Every structure is written in C-alpha cells, then in structure tokens.
C-alpha cells in the first residue's frame, strides 16, 4: 500500500476460525432457482470490505448480531443459502438446499486505523479480511455468499464479503447488504426482494437483432500477453469535481459535441490513457465495455428490489491509432453511442444472443469499466453507524477499471486499476491533468 502503510499492511496478521454455516432462520423454498442469461455471463467472485469503528457499546456482540441478522435476512434471500450447480441445459442454476452461507470469525493483531489507505485494491493484505474457500477449483465449489467478521484491537471490526456476481448486480448487492444491516438494527424490510428472474428469460425461439460486439474476439497484435506477465501494480487516482469538470470542458472545446456528462468524459479519458500506456499497435482494435443499468430501459420496467442482474454490457470498438489520433470528443462520442444503444430491444437481443450462441464476452484488447460510484456502499449500518471505509479487495479481471465515489459528499471519483509496472508508470503520467 502507499502513503507509508506498506510495512504495517504487509505485517497484518489475521487469525481465522473454522468456517461455520449460517442457514436461514425459518424454513425456505427448496429446489432449483432460475438464473437469467444476464446472470450467466458474470459468475465471478466479488470481494468487498466494510470497516466499522467501535462506539460506546463496543464490538463484543458484533459477530453474534451480524450472524443472527444474516440468518434472518436469508429467509428473504434464500437462494444465497443454496449452492450453484449446472442445469440440464448446461447453464448455472441455484440448488436451494438451505444449507446456509459460510461464516468466519477472525481476530486481527492491530488497530483498524493501521489498515491505512484501502482506496486501491490490495489482494495480499486486504485479502486476509475475506475468506477464500481453500482448494476451490471453480465457482461451483464456493457458496454464493461467504462472510468474515474480523475484530481489531481498537474495538473496530471489518465485514469482508465474497459474493458471486451471478446472484446480483451492484444495485442488488447493496440492497441485500443494507437489508442485512436493517435486520441487525431490528428493523423490518420495507420492501422484500422481487425474486422472479424469469421476467428476463430468453424468447422462444431466440431473436438476436444486434451484432453484440461485446462477444467479439480481438487478435492481440500488440503482444500485451507478454507485458502482462510482468509485475502488476495497483493504483487509485482521485478525480475531484474540478478535475471532472475540466475533462468535461475539454471534451466540448472543439464544439463537435453539444453536451457531455462527467462519466462519459472520464470513461473516454481513461480508455485513451490506458491504450497509450499499453503502447498498443496503431492497427490494434481495442474494445470498451461497460455495464448499463437496464432497470429503467427495459419494458415493462424491472420491479423495485429486483434480486438479480439487470445490467447489460454495451460496447464500442476502435483502432488504437484512430482513438489516440483524434480529439477527446471523438472518444466521448463513441461512449455516448454505446450508452444510447441500450434499449429494451438491445437488452432482449443480448439475452437471446447468449441463448443462441452461449458466447462469453471476450476481454482480449478490452477495457471493462465498472461504475460503483452510484452505489450506496457508505450507507450500510449494522448498528455501529456507517462504515468509515469500504471498497473492493481485488479487481475481478486485469482488464477492469473501477469507478468509486469518494469524499464526504460523494462528488469525487476514485479510478482504481491494475497495470503491468512499465504501463502503470506511463498511465500515472497521463493522469496529471
């Protein structure tokens, strides 16, 4: 970690107890639970941590309160107490066995503030605050939800979660964690989760009507596979409101665009910077992927508290030479066109495309931007107030860049990424705006 915390972090010692199972508090539905095609493509484990300071009541009961609340909230979110398996159609499906989430109690040998800067992924140090199932060879061998509560000497504690993305997208995950927190505080769920994912099932027969370049395989003309064999460096770059506005104005300065959002300007800026930092061949085709929330775009709109993935990947393709040889506005326009493309028809087409082809999004020569800046990580409250720090432990793929909100008013954006050491040095230079 940076900011002089590398020594402390590298020496962080966490003693984990043997994991136990936390089943739902009441009897729940058994049998197979359908996962949509939007769930199938993102069955990766997402690891996050939430750091809570001690208050006047201390944290002596934190583990029991969180564990008891988990048991109760799993009654509503019962598939999380099941296990992933493969359906006769060779797709992921949940077997609702009710056996429970995996839960681990742990003790750290230091105070919470010694964690230092967690604004960038740190798989080695922060990885000790989440529990990895030993020997798991695939996601089928990892329960959909694994939780670890680590007590610190100061009385603070950290909740570390491993959750399979196929169970829900960012919005759904935060709704679950916040419902868990509400339950811990003795509050009823105002709106229970909407469980029926068949509202997003494929048409019969499937009718894909878009090309769906998100699945396109791109030839690696730039030999980036060799570059990625070098040591990976992880960094976080903060874009405050002034920097974001500067980028937005820069995108508009040549008058080719009428308007531009800060998300569009920032996405375009980092796509260009990463392309240049990786020294891609001018003829190298490069792809931008990012998730768009389909809740308001699909017809009829997806119900409130939908338990599942309602995001769809949209994309843009461009040669590296063309990307870097044009003004920032050119790249912003590509981003805008990708956003605009997502409609009810596009989402239905994406669902049907997977049904017909079983293709997976290809990440060769690709940048995948995941936006967590609108997610309510900071509102989770188990009875000890909101977390003093929260964020990811590791990025799920080397091609992923994460946007996280930052600051008290959540108006700044932290850009988190990993790059091979030489490329990171160049990328840092491009970030000095």
UniProtKB/TrEMBL annotation:
Superkingdom of source: Eukaryota
Segments for region (Disordered): 1-21
E.C. number: 2.3.1.140
Keywords: Acyltransferase, Transferase
InterPro entries cross-referenced by the UniProt entry: CAT-like_dom_sf, Plant_Fungal_Acyltransferase
Catalysed reactions listed for this entry: (2R)-3-(3,4-dihydroxyphenyl)lactate + (E)-caffeoyl-CoA = (R)-rosmarinate + CoA
Name assigned to this protein: Rosmarinate synthase
Organism: Buddleja alternifolia
């Amino acid at each position: 970690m940076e900011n002089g915390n590398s020594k402390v972090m590298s020496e962080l010692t966490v003693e984990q107890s043997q994991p136990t199972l936390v089943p739902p508090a009441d009897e729940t539905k058994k049998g197979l639970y359908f996962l949509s095609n939007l769930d199938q493509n993102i069955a990766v484990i997402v690891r996050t941590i939430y750091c809570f300071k001690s208050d006047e009541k201390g944290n002596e009961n934190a583990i029991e309160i969180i564990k008891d609340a988990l048991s109760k909230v799993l009654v509503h979110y019962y598939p999380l107490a099941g296990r992933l398996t493969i359906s006769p159609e060779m797709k992921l499906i949940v077997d609702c066995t009710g056996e429970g989430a995996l839960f681990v109690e742990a003790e750290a040998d230091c105070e919470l503030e010694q964690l230092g800067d967690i604004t960038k992924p740190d798989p080695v140090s922060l990885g000790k605050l989440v529990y990895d199932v030993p020997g798991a060879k695939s996601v089928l061998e990892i329960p959909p939800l694994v939780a670890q509560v680590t007590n610190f000497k100061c009385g603070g504690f950290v909740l570390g979660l491993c959750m399979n993305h196929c169970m829900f997208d960012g919005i759904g995950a935060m709704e679950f964690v916040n419902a868990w927190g509400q339950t811990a505080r003795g509050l009823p769920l105002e709106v229970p989760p909407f469980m029926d994912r068949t509202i997003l099932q494929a048409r019969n027969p499937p009718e894909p009507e878009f090309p769906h370049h998100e699945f396109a395989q791109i030839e690696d003309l730039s030999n980036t596979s060799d570059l990625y064999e070098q040591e990976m460096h992880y960094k976080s770059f903060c874009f405050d409101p002034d920097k974001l506005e500067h980028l937005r104005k820069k995108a508009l300065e040549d008058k080719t665009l009428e308007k531009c959002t800060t998300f569009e300007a920032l996405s375009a800026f980092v796509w260009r910077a990463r392309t240049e930092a990786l020294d891609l061949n001018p003829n190298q085709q490069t792809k931008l992927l990012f998730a768009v929330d389909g809740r308001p775009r699909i017809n009829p709109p997806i119900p409130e508290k939908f338990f599942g993935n309602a995001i769809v990947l949209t994309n843009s393709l461009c040669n590296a030479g063309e990307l870097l040889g044009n003004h920032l506005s050119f790249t912003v326009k590509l981003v805008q066109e990708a956003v605009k493309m997502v409609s009810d028809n596009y989402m239905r087409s994406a669902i049907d495309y997977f049904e017909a082809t079983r293709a997976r999004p290809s990440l060769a020569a690709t940048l995948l931007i995941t936006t967590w800046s609108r997610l309510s990580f900071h509102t989770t409250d188990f009875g000890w107030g909101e977390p003093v720090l929260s964020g990811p432990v590791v990025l799920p793929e080397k091609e992923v860049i994460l946007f996280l909100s930052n600051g008290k008013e959540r108006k700044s954006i932290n850009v988190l990424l990993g790059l091979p050491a030489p490329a990171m040095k160049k990328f840092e230079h491009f970030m000095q705006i």
